[in-house]
Structure to design on (791 residues):
C-alpha cells in the first residue's frame, strides 16, 4: 500500500485506537505491525477471527489474557547462558501459567471457537518448568529457603549466628564495664561489620578494631574483639548463601534455555490471540460489523461512519463499482465531501486489515490491490512547492504505479490553478483512471465536470446535501444528483445586499440558472422522499416493537397455561400415589385376614374398586404430562352443551367435560384434568356426547393386586447394564399383568450408555409398541416413556 495514502487517510490513528485495547506488549507489537492485506482468503480469515473473538466477549465476557508478560528478552538471555534474576523467572512462571489457562479455556470451547482454539494449540505445556520455578522463587521474587536443602541449612545457620551476634553486642552495650566508654548504646554498620560507638579517649581501652571515625573525631566505631569470630562466620555463611542462590538461578536458567524455542512459539500465539481480542474489542466499541468482501471492485456501504469522528456522526451510504466505476462529488467546499472520501478510504483499509467497519449490517466492500489518496494540502514547505504542484506530484505517482484493481480517492481534483485548465486536466485524469478499470471517487467544484459525468456511462454524479436554511451541510451523500454551489443563496443569507446578488445572478446564463434550479428542486424532492421513508421506517419499527410485545405476552400466557396444567398433573399424580398407598394397606389387611378366611370377599371388592380408580387417575396424570396427541377432530355438535358432554375450551386450546351450567345458561362449569373452570358459553364447543366409562378387566386376584400396587415409574440409575436389564424385564412383565398401557423408565443422563442399553432392550421386547424420551418436565433425556401393547 502507498505510505503517503495511508498517512493522509489517518491509518496510524486506527492503530492507536487498537493499541488501547491490547492487553500486553506481545499484542501491541502486532498492532504496530498491522497493515492492509490484499489476498481475499487471508482477509476473510482475519475477519472471521475478529468475529469469533466478538462472540467470545458476548458469551464469555472476554478472553482471559491476564498475567502475560513480555519475557522474550529474558528467554533470549537464557539462551546465551545468562543467569536470570528471580523477577524474570517469576514473570516466566506467571506467563506460562496464563498461557496454560488460555489453552484450557479454548480447548473447553473448541467447537464454539475453532479458529481461536487453532491458534491456542500452538501453546506448549510448561508444567514442569513452572513447578520448578515456583518451588524456588516466592511471590515476592525471592529465592526461597526450600529451593534446596543446602540453602535451607545455610540460611538456618545465618539466623542462628546473627542472633548470637546481636545478643553478644547487646550485652556489651548494656554492660556496666563499658558504660563510660560507649558514646551511645546503639549498633551501627561500618564496612559491612557491626560496630559500637566508642568515645575517642577510650579507643585504646576498648578491646576491638576501629572501622571508622566520626566527622568531629569524638567518636570511633569499633568492632568488639569478642564478636570478631562470629562476624567472620556470618560473612562466610553469607558468601555461601550467595553462591548457592547463584547455583539455583543458573539451574533454573538452563531449564528456560532448553525450552526457549517452545517459549517463543507460545509467546507468538499469545500475541496473535491478544491482537485478535483487541480487534474484537474495538469492533464492539465502534458498533462495527463484518463486511461482505468481494474482488469485483464493488462497494455497497450502508450507514458508514468515519471511525475517528467523535459525537453525533451522520452515517452515509456509498455504492460504487456495479453500475459505475467513477463517482464525482460536486458542491461547496464546506459540504463534507472530504469526509466522504476519507470514510471510504479508511474503512477499506480497516476491512483489509481484518478489522470490522463502523457501518450497517449487510455492507459490502471490495478488496483492492492498491489504495491511492490525494487528500488535503500535502505540500512541502521545505521544497517550496505550491498546492497545485504538490497535488500533481502525488497524481504522477498514482499514474505511474496504478494497476487494474485499485481504489483512487482525489480531493478537489484539478484545483489550485486556472479553472479552465484545471477542469480539463481533471477530465483527462478521470478518463485515464476509468480506462485503467480503477474505482475512483473524486471531489470537485468545477461545474463542467458535472456535465461530463452525465455524458459518460462509467461516471456518476453525486453531492453532499446542504441545508440552505441553516447554511450547514447535512453530510448526507446523494448519489445521482450533482451538487449545487449555492454561492449566491449563501451570500444573500449572510447579508450581502440583494441588488448585488441579483446583478450577479444576471451575469449567469439562463441555462445555468435553469440547471441550478432543477438541481435544487431534485434535492428538495429527495429530502422529502427521505423524510417520508424515515417516517415509514419509524412506523415499521414501532409496529415491530408492538408485535414483539404481544408475542411476549402470548408466550407468557402459554407458559402460565402450561404451569397450570403441570400443577394439575402433579395433583393427579398425588391422587394416584395416595390410592396406591391405600391399596397397599388393603392388601396388608387382606393377607392378615386370609388365614382366618374372614371378610375376604369384602376386601377383594374394595380392592377392585380402588384398582379401577388408580387406573383412571394414572391415565389422567399421563395425559397431563405428555404433549396432547393430534387426533382428527370430530365435527362439532350443533346443540347447546349438556352435563357430561366433551367440549373444547378455546382460551386453553384443550378439552374438558361439562359438569353443570348456570341458571341463565351463559356460563359453563368445565373440568379439564384436575382443574375446574367456569368459562363463557361462547368459549366452548361441543365435540362429543358422554360415553360410559369401562371398568378395567381384572381376571384374577393376582392381577387386581398388581394393578393396585404397580408403580408406573422404574428407576435404573446407578445400576450396571446387565443388572438393569434383568430389573427392566421383570418390571415390564409386571406392567403387562397389571394392564398398564404406559410406564416411565428413569435411566439418567450420564454418558448415555445405560439409555442406549435400555432402548436396545425395548426395541426387541415383544410387548413394547413404542418408546420415546420423556418431556422436559418428566425428566427429559434422563427418562424414557414406554408404550405397551394392550391387546
Amino acid at each position: 500500500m502507498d505510505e503517503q495514502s495511508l498517512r493522509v487517510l489517518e491509518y496510524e490513528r486506527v492503530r492507536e485506537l487498537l493499541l488501547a485495547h491490547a492487553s500486553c506488549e506481545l499484542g501491541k507489537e502486532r498492532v504496530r505491525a498491522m497493515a492492509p492485506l490484499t489476498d481475499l482468503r487471508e482477509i476473510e480469515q482475519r475477519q472471521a477471527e475478529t468475529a469469533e473473538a466478538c462472540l467470545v466477549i458476548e458469551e464469555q465476557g472476554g478472553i482471559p489474557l491476564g498475567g502475560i508478560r513480555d519475557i522474550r528478552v529474558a528467554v533470549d538471555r537464557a539462551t546465551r547462558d545468562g543467569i536470570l534474576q528471580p523477577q524474570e523467572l517469576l514473570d516466566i512462571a506467571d506467563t506460562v501459567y496464563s498461557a496454560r489457562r488460555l489453552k484450557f479455556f479454548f480447548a473447553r470451547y473448541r467447537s464454539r471457537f475453532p479458529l481461536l482454539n487453532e491458534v491456542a494449540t500452538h501453546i506448549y505445556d510448561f508444567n514442569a518448568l513452572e513447578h520448578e520455578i515456583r518451588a524456588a522463587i516466592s511471590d515476592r521474587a525471592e529465592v526461597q529457603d526450600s529451593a534446596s536443602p543446602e540453602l535451607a541449612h545455610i540460611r538456618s545457620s545465618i539466623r542462628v549466628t546473627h542472633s548470637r551476634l546481636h545478643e553478644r553486642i547487646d550485652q556489651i552495650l548494656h554492660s556496666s564495664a563499658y558504660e563510660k566508654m560507649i558514646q551511645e548504646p546503639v549498633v551501627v554498620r561500618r564496612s559491612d561489620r557491626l560496630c559500637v560507638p566508642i568515645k575517642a579517649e577510650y579507643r585504646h581501652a576498648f578491646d576491638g578494631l576501629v572501622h571508622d571515625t566520626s566527622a568531629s573525631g569524638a567518636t570511633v566505631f569499633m568492632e568488639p574483639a569478642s564478636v570478631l569470630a562470629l562476624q567472620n562466620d556470618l560473612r562466610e555463611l553469607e558468601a555461601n548463601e550467595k553462591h548457592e542462590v547463584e547455583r539455583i538461578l543458573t539451574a533454573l536458567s538452563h531449564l528456560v534455555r532448553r525450552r526457549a524455542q517452545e517459549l517463543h512459539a507460545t509467546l507468538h500465539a499469545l500475541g496473535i490471540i491478544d491482537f485478535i481480542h483487541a480487534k474484537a474489542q474495538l469492533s464492539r466499541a465502534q458498533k462495527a460489523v463484518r463486511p461482505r468482501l468481494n474482488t469485483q471492485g464493488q462497494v455497497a456501504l450502508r450507514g458508514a461512519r468515519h471511525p475517528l469522528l467523535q459525537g453525533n456522526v451522520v452515517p452515509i451510504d456509498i455504492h460504487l463499482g456495479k453500475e459505475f466505476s467513477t463517482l464525482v462529488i460536486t458542491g461547496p467546499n464546506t459540504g463534507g465531501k472530504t469526509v466522504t472520501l476519507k470514510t471510504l478510504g479508511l474503512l477499506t483499509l480497516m476491512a483489509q486489515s481484518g478489522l470490522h467497519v463502523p457501518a450497517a449490517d449487510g455492507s459490502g466492500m471490495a478488496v483492492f490491490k492498491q489504495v491511492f489518496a490525494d487528500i488535503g494540502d500535502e505540500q512541502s514547505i521545505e521544497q517550496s512547492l505550491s498546492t497545485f504542484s504538490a497535488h500533481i506530484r502525488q497524481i504522477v505517482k498514482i499514474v505511474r504505479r496504478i494497476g487494474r484493481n485499485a481504489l483512487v480517492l482525489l480531493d478537489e481534483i484539478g484545483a489550485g490553478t486556472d479553472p479552465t485548465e484545471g477542469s480539463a486536466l481533471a477530465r483527462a485524469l478521470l478518463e485515464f483512471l476509468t480506462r485503467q478499470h480503477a474505482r475512483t471517487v473524486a471531489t470537485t467544484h468545477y461545474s463542467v465536470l458535472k456535465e461530463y459525468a452525465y455524458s459518460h456511462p462509467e461516471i456518476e454524479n453525486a453531492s453532499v446535501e446542504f441545508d440552505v436554511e441553516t447554511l450547514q451541510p447535512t453530510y448526507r451523500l446523494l448519489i445521482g444528483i450533482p451538487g449545487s454551489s449555492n454561492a449566491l443563496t449563501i451570500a444573500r443569507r449572510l447579508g450581502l445586499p440583494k441588488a448585488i446578488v441579483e446583478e450577479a445572478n444576471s451575469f449567469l446564463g439562463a441555462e445555468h440558472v435553469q440547471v441550478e434550479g432543477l438541481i435544487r428542486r431534485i434535492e428538495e424532492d429527495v429530502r422529502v422522499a427521505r423524510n417520508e421513508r424515515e417516517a415509514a421506517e419509524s412506523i415499521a419499527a414501532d409496529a415491530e416493537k408492538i408485535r414483539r410485545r404481544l408475542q411476549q405476552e402470548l408466550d407468557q400466557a402459554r407458559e402460565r397455561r402450561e404451569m397450570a396444567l403441570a400443577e394439575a398433573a402433579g395433583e393427579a399424580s398425588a391422587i394416584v400415589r395416595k390410592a396406591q398407598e391405600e391399596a397397599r394397606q388393603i392388601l396388608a389387611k387382606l393377607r392378615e385376614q386370609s388365614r382366618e378366611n374372614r371378610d375376604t370377599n369384602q376386601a377383594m371388592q374394595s380392592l377392585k374398586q380402588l384398582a379401577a380408580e388408580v387406573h383412571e387417575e394414572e391415565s389422567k396424570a399421563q395425559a397431563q404430562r405428555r404433549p396432547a396427541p393430534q387426533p382428527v377432530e370430530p365435527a362439532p355438535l350443533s346443540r347447546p352443551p349438556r352435563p357430561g358432554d366433551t367440549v373444547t375450551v378455546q382460551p386453553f386450546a384443550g378439552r374438558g367435560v361439562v359438569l353443570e351450567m348456570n341458571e341463565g345458561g351463559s356460563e359453563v362449569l368445565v373440568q379439564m384434568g384436575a382443574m375446574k373452570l367456569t368459562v363463557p358459553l361462547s368459549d366452548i364447543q361441543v365435540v362429543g356426547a358422554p360415553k360410559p366409562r369401562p371398568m378395567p378387566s381384572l381376571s384374577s386376584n393376582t392381577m387386581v393386586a398388581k394393578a393396585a400396587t404397580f408403580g408406573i415409574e422404574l428407576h435404573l440409575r446407578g445400576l450396571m447394564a446387565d443388572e438393569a436389564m434383568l430389573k427392566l424385564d421383570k418390571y415390564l412383565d409386571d406392567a403387562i399383568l397389571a394392564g398398564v398401557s404406559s410406564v416411565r423408565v428413569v435411566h439418567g443422563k450420564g454418558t448415555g450408555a445405560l439409555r442406549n442399553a435400555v432402548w436396545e432392550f425395548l426395541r426387541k421386547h415383544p410387548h413394547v409398541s413404542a418408546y420415546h424420551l420423556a418431556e422436559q418436565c418428566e425428566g427429559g433425556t434422563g427418562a424414557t416413556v414406554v408404550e405397551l401393547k394392550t391387546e
Q: What stands out?
A: Residues 3-126+259-285 form a domain with the MutS, DNA mismatch repair protein; Chain A, domain 3 fold (CATH 1.10.1420.10). Confidence is low (pLDDT under 50) at residues 377-385, 626-634, 692-708. The chain has 22 helices and 23 strands. The radius of gyration is 45 Å.
